[in-house]
Each structure stands twice: as C-alpha cells, then as structure tokens.
Amino acid sequence: MNAFASLNFENLSQEMAQGGGEHLASLATLIGVPAEHQAEFFALTQEKYTSLIQSGEASPTALLKALNAAMAEHPVLAKATAAR
Fold first, then answer.
1. CA dihedral 24, 30, 35, 36 (to 10 degrees)
2. Of these four, 3, 12, 42, 84, which has the most CB atoms within 10 Å of its CB?
3. What pLDDT is recorded for position 58?
C-alpha cells in the first residue's frame, strides 16, 4: 500500500477531491474495501479530503494513516475492512 500510495500520490489526491477514479479504486482494493462498499469509500475520501491531504503534511504515509483513522470511524467501512 505504501509503495502504491507513493507512486500514485498526485493521482490519488486528485481522485479523492473528485470522489472517485481508477487509482482510488485500486487503493480501495488494496486496503480491502469490498466492491459493494467502494462508493462509500469514495464518498468518505471526498468528504474528508482536507483532513486526508493536509497541506503542510501531504505525504503518502500521512495520507494512509489519516485514511485508516477515518475508515475506523465509519460504521460500514470499519466493519468491511476489519478482517484485513
């Protein structure tokens, strides 16, 4: 996941702002979000975009850490990825 986020950070950032995209779908799959919950994952990343991509701390590692925290608070996504 870290390597994927590092290589695709700019694309992921743009797709999170847009609420979906090919790179974001790939990240969701890597994280373990089932296909039937990817729309909720996309909505979460768009809603939490500013906290996920903090201007002063914009890095792939910070992104994944913030994303995991946001998913843990989401009722459906926390359950969907608990098994990973």
1. -90
2. 12
3. 79
